[in-house]
Amino acid sequence: xxxxxxxxxxxxxxxxxxxxxxxxxxxxxxxxxxxxxxxxxxxxxxxxxxxxxxxxxxxxxxxxxxxxxxxxxxxxxxxxxxxxxxxxxxxxxxxxxxxxxxxxxxxxxxxxxxxxxxxxxxxxxxxxxxxxxxxxxxxxxxxxxxxxxxxxxxxxxxxxxxxxxxxxxxxxxxxxxxxxxxxxxxxxxxxxxxxxxxxxxxxxxxxxx
Amino acid sequence: xxxxxxxxxxxxxxxxxxxxxxxxxxxxxxxxxxxxxxxxxxxxxxxxxxxxxxxxxxxxxxxxxxxxxxxxxxxxxxxxxxxxxxxxxxxxxxxxxxxxxxxxxxxxxxxxxxxxxxxxxxxxxxxxxxxxxxxxxxxxxxxxxxxxxxxxxxxxxxxxxxxxxxxxxxxxxxxxxxxxxxxxxxxxxxxxxxxxxxxxxxxxxxxxxxxxxxxxxxxxxxxxxxxxxxxxxxxxxxxxxxxxxxxxxxxxxxxxxxxxxxxxxxxxxxxxxxxxxxxxxxxxxxxxxxxxxxxxxxxxxxxxx
Lengths: 209, 305
Fold this sequence. Notes:
- The complex is a heterodimer.
- Chain A is of the alpha+beta class.
- Chain A contains five helices and eight strands; from the N terminus they run H-H-E-H-E-E-H-E-E-E-E-E-H.
- Chain A has a single domain, classed as Alpha-Beta Plaits.
- Chain B is mainly α.
- Chain B has one domain: Metalloproteases ("zincins"), catalytic domain (Zincin-like, 2-Layer Sandwich).
- Chain B is 71% helix and 6% strand.
- Chain B has a four-stranded mixed beta sheet with strand order 1-2-4-3, sandwiched between helices.
- Chain B is globular and about 65 Å long.
- The two termini of chain B are 14 Å apart.
- At the A-B interface, strand 8 and helix 5 of A face helix 9, helix 10, helix 11 and helix 14 of B.
């Protein structure tokens, strides 16, 4: 019964898919160029999709389907992936590609598959990683090498910045504001800063650089 | 070169004209009612005008005195003076007096009758929490208030409000007096006089309320204008945005709790952003919400970068 209910939900969702699902996330295809030219902040072409784990065969099937999709499409999108379960009960699908477009297309495929199976509401966020380009002969500030993230909240369909500072769960609000301001015209962004929730200890180290 | 933030602000001018019309029309109606009734409104108006003019004339001294700001010399605060001088040199502005308030609360204001005799005051708390670029943004904002003659504008706008207020008082006491006279005179005038006084009171009350709200609307709009002015002066709107967030404590309101931990609460996903909740509060406040100002500043930054 639950299965059929989920299927119905999934069906309902997929009907709306083209209209309102994740159009905003593709704004990143132009915004990342702006970040590069104006801030010298370049995409590492790595992203993490954070999904709330569900116990049950149907969810496991869905994840297997996602993995199958990523395996088959890996040559086409030039991506590789790792699945990581974190301490907070979330499943991370970590993606690494050759370009922002690649990881966007791959992540959209993942999101579509999960939404079609009725687990849309389990999807929390897609997180994209950026790093400052440092020319070899410039003396660099240590903070400049810290990664800076753009978090896409699947429920609010908006981006917000997240720049962690070191390991002690602090953040660089000034860098976050600068980052957001540069692409505010190009992406749907979260104007309510009280929901710029951080995500500490993301498993990006499980991917190659 | 006609980016949004550089354009001449015709919207501001239009809004000013409309505001003054909204303020003036009920005022004139009110005067008409008074004249019709033959009430001696001249003494009241004279008193109100004298008060308004002296309020404007002494505004800088009153503000400095009531805030406890002390005008400081270059020797006392060389860095602050240097910072102001850099902005005014780049933008070819006259140098204002600089004052410091010994207070932990981060704040700043500008006052003065003319561009040349103006004062920019900052608290010690402000200098403590802001770095020099952010402080530059705040001072740019205050200098813009001076350049836009905002003290004069707000004082003029207050004129109507204050006059209406005095007339309301006068109308009230006049009402008591008039009632007494009616009793003395007796006869048919009695009821009519009371009704007219009630109308007069009502008009005065409405005038006062409307002008009160309009002054606040003007004031909020001038804040946006000063933010834009600061962005033009410093070329770094994001620094003012940072400063605003620090001053308002929004920096602390950027959450530290993990998205995965708050996801279960789920409530925050449903509440629409910028919903009607704040509208009433906005109507009565002199400053627009920090979030809106920060948003506009970020948009300016985006178009300048």
